[in-house]
Design goal:
It contains eleven helices and no strands. It is an all-alpha fold and 260 residues long. This is Integral membrane protein.
């Protein structure tokens, strides 16, 4: 799991650096991710021949991920490309994980020196994996959810939103406020409760979200303009909420499966 852990941290840092408003330079996100990858390989002592090859693959995939996901969020097309790239990378790293070096290095020495209570019986590889999962759920999880919503048409691309006038009908993401903040918090709570063995409490968190959002969804459905076609289907707001929530939960449960 060493390579997967390093990849998760690098992807998470790169996605945290991204700015929705475009205030950061275009290449800052992949650069931050690659630098994080190099720094972690040094402090964990993961720099064997097989490790270097794997980390180069991760760096290339990271650059591809940031660029393809940025374009998809802009124009709404080819959402399968960044999602497929990320999935293929994780599968490949897991398939060849037996060649990875055991992490130690300066990070291991620091953990022994710091004598942290939670790190007394935890290996460096475990610390690295948990750090990767936390950063991944904070940032990359949001982008995965957004890509899936774009793929099914439940979210409008950035270019479309920018071209619309102020009088245009708001999309579901504008009506259900706080999704970008609540999503990471929700995933981290589910991950933390799952690691603690409190699966019942994690299910309560999932149920509570639906109960808290239900009045907003109902109110939005009453105030929505009439449909422009006779197609029978799920309400846009409901589709956005259900698909976004289920993808977010799957990301959290997938992270929990890796951590267990």
């Amino acid at each position: 799991m060493t390579w997967v852990s390093l990849a998760l941290v690098a992807f998470g840092v790169a996605d945290l650096v991204r700015s929705p408003a475009g205030r950061m330079p275009l290449g800052s996100a992949p650069l931050a991710g690659v630098l994080t990858l190099v720094l972690l390989s040094v402090v964990t002592g993961v720099h064997g021949v097989a490790d270097v090859v794997a980390l180069v693959v991760v760096a290339v995939a990271l650059v591809g991920w940031t660029e393809t996901s940025r374009r998809t969020q802009a124009d709404g097309r080819r959402a399968w490309l960044p999602l497929g790239l990320f999935a293929a990378l994780v599968v490949a790293l897991l398939a060849f994980s037996g060649f990875a070096s055991e992490p130690s290095g300066p990070l291991s020495e620091w953990l022994r020196w710091a004598d942290l209570p939670w790190a007394a019986d935890v290996s460096v590889s475990r610390v690295l994996l948990l750090a990767g999962l936390v950063v991944f759920n904070l940032a990359t999880g949001n982008i995965i959810v957004r890509l899936v919503l774009l793929a099914i048409g439940a979210l409008r691309p950035d270019q479309v939103v920018a071209a619309q006038s102020a009088t245009s009908d708001p999309q579901p993401a504008d009506r259900l406020k706080g999704g970008r903040l609540l999503g990471p918090m929700e995933r981290l709570v589910i991950l933390g409760l799952g690691l603690a063995g409190e699966y019942g409490a994690a299910s309560i968190v999932i149920a509570a979200k639906g109960l808290l959002r239900f009045p907003e969804i109902q109110a939005a459905a009453r105030t929505s303009p009439p449909p422009t076609s006779t197609r029978v289907g799920i309400d846009d707001m409901t589709e956005y909420f259900l698909v976004g929530s289920f993808v977010s939960w799957l990301v959290a449960l997938g992270s929990l499966a890796l951590a267990r």
